From TrEMBL:
InterPro entries assigned: BTB/POZ_dom, SKP1/BTB/POZ_sf, ZnFinger_BTB_dom_contain
Keywords, ordered alphabetically: DNA-binding, Metal-binding, Nucleus, Repeat, Transcription, Transcription regulation, Zinc, Zinc-finger
Main location: nucleus
Name of the protein in its database record: Zinc finger protein 131
Cited SUPFAM superfamilies: POZ domain
GO cellular component: nucleus
Subcellular location per the Swiss-Prot or TrEMBL entry: Nucleus
MF terms (GO), sorted A to Z: DNA-binding transcription factor activity, RNA polymerase II-specific; RNA polymerase II cis-regulatory region sequence-specific DNA binding; zinc ion binding
Domain BTB: 34-63
Lineage: Eukaryota, Metazoa, Chordata, Craniata, Vertebrata
Amino acid sequence: MEAEETMECIQEFPEHYKVILDRLNEQREQDQFTDITLIVDGHHFKAHKAVLAACSQFFYKFF
């Protein structure tokens, strides 16, 4: 019986979080996939609910 050959490939992306945050910000700035507008003192801020919920217990419970 032949031994089964396996190959393992590991690739690390230590700066991946920066790429994700940059892309989310670009999408927000271009009003892509934003699904909520926060209004504070008359100023409108487009946002992603998923990002707000991930960063804030208040928004997590609110949504």
